[in-house]
Amino acid sequence: MLIFEQSQAGRSGLNVKPVAIPATDLPSDALRTSKIGLPDVSELQVVRHYTRLSQKNFSIDTQFYPLGSCTMKYNPKVCHTLANLPEFASAHPLADASFHQGWMACLYDLQQILKTVTGMDGISLTPAAGAQGEFAGVAMIKAYHQARGEGEQRNEILVPDAAHGTNPASAVMCGFKVKEIPSNADGDVDLEQLQHSLSDKTAGIMLTNPSTLGVFERQITEISAMVHQVGGLLYYDGANLNAILAKVRPREMGFDIVHINLHKTFSTPHGGGGPGAGPVGVVKALMPFLPVPMVDYNGEEYTWITEQQHPQTIGRLTTFAGNSGILLRAYIYARLLGGEGMTRVAEFSCLNANYLMVKLQQAGFDLAFPERRASHECIVTLKRQAKEFGVHTIDFAKRLLDYNYHAPTTYFPLLVPECLLIEPTETETKQEIDGFINALITINNEAKQQPKIVKNAPYHLPVKRLDEVKAARELDIVWTIKNS
Predict the structure, then answer these.
(1) What range defines the domain where residue 148 resides?
(2) Distance (Å, rounded) from C-alpha 483 to C-alpha 15?
């Protein structure tokens, strides 16, 4: 093993020499017996290598990314710039709170902002992803019922068939049985089926509103009354909060718990497994169970609320204060928007989605719910194209890459055959959306006239169509160094 020793003269960059130190405290089978195998390259070669790699990837900075329910929208660069200021980026999480008053002021303000937009009484910022926020929400439902002596009895969570797949997973992880509630032909929850599923075993229901079907749940107040009447709680999946931001609050719809995907509604980076943030909010009755830490303010200084002050907490979900760099970006974005800007987020996200939906319908595409107005996203079904031309959703998705558009979400939700779940988001222009619509129309014409062109796409990328199922099942991540 080597370390580098620098003499007094060497502090100007001279006389730096490696010094060998013994590795006797390492087991012999852990010691390297050959060279590490890193290529001998210059800085310029490294820069060019990674720049070329980045140019091969689709990016929100360069292309339209209409992933339904994922809200892949533009992240303002000013948020990254401010979050990377040394006063923020160099802060050490183990330092005393007195060294972090500025940081903690931002987090405290973010808590207050999220209380305002959700209507909740308490907020915890610590969950580091939407799925972790879901888990926290369901864990608090469990803790609430246990504290009331009903933990064993209330062992069922109701989940609509259009829910995100993480919803039932979170419920199962918390020890609940999942009962699926079907949707009716219009995309709303089937109230009759819901009534049959409710009982004194019901712990709660998990809902996204607007739902993953791209429509607003019109019967939400009736659902709330039905669930509350049997002693259950309502959990709000905040994945689609941007569609109703500053228009209606989850609390006003009857929800008791909410998680917020900050990386969606509040425009922070996400994708590729992270980073993300999924703060949770609750009504007063569930505040004792919020995960820690949280930030408190006594009028003079900011302090941490920990297990000592919050003994019924469900605990810690992340190290320290969660994904605080992402939380800071969300805070900056919220302050940039202000109340008026948040209203525009909802208006433009819905306007863009409805414009896109109507234009595609006029062009001959089939909508999953043609009688409904879109929320922030809409669903097109390509089952007719699959039947008549043998061209499937995956073929449309691959062909879109040749026109420099990332595909929308494909084959989800599962209850819509051959579906494209499309979300233009509020940050895209009419010009960009029109280009995407024209590309879909062109591909649809190709499917009718020359289906093989669509079925063999893409043609203009570094690689042709891959067997994605095989790649997922037989993952090969070994990097082989080739001798030049």
Answers:
(1) 78-336
(2) 33
Give the HSE-up count for residue 375: Cα atoms under 13 Å, Cβ half-sphere.
24
In this structure, are 379 and 284 located in the same domain? no
Does some domain include residue 392?
A: yes
Q: Write down the pLDDT at residue 13.
A: 45
Q: Do 395 and 286 fall within a single domain?
A: no
Q: Which of 179, 199, 203 is nearest to 189 (CA)?
A: 179
Instruction: Quote the pLDDT of residue 248.
Output: 96
The number of distinct structural domains making up the chain is 2
Question: How many Å apart are CA 199 and CA 394, to the nearest integer?
Answer: 41
- At 326-377, the pLDDT tens digits run 999 999 999 999 999 999 999 999 999 999 999 999 999 999 999 999 999 9
Residue 165 neighbours by CB distance under 10 Å:
13
For residues 455 and 443, what is the distance between their CA atoms, to the nearest angstrom? 11
Nearest to 212 by CA among 424, 375, 396, 407: 375
Give yes or no: residues 184 and 307 share one domain. yes
* Co-location of 242 and 281 in the same domain: yes
Whether residues 315 and 417 fall in one domain: no
Helical residues (DSSP H) of 230-323, grouped into ranges: 262-265
Q: Any idea what the Cα angle at residue 184 is, between residues 178 and 188, rounded to 5°?
A: 80
CATH number of the domain within which 360 lies:
3.90.1150.10
pLDDT single digits (tens) 107-139:
999 999 999 999 999 999 999 989 999 999 999
What is the distance between the alpha carbons of residues 272 and 275, in angstroms, rounded to a whole number? 8
8 A C-beta contact, residue 365 and residue 425: no
Q: Is 26 contained in some domain?
A: no
The beta-strand segments (E) located in 306-448 are: 366-367, 378-381, 409-410, 419-422
Asked if residues 179 and 156 have their Cβ atoms less than 8 Å apart, the reply is yes
Examine the fold and report which residue of 273, 307, 336 is the final residue of a domain before the chain moves on.
336
Q: How many CB atoms lie within 10 A of CB 147?
A: 14
Within 8 A by CB and 6+ apart from 318, the residues are 126, 127, 128, 132
pTM listed for this prediction:
0.87
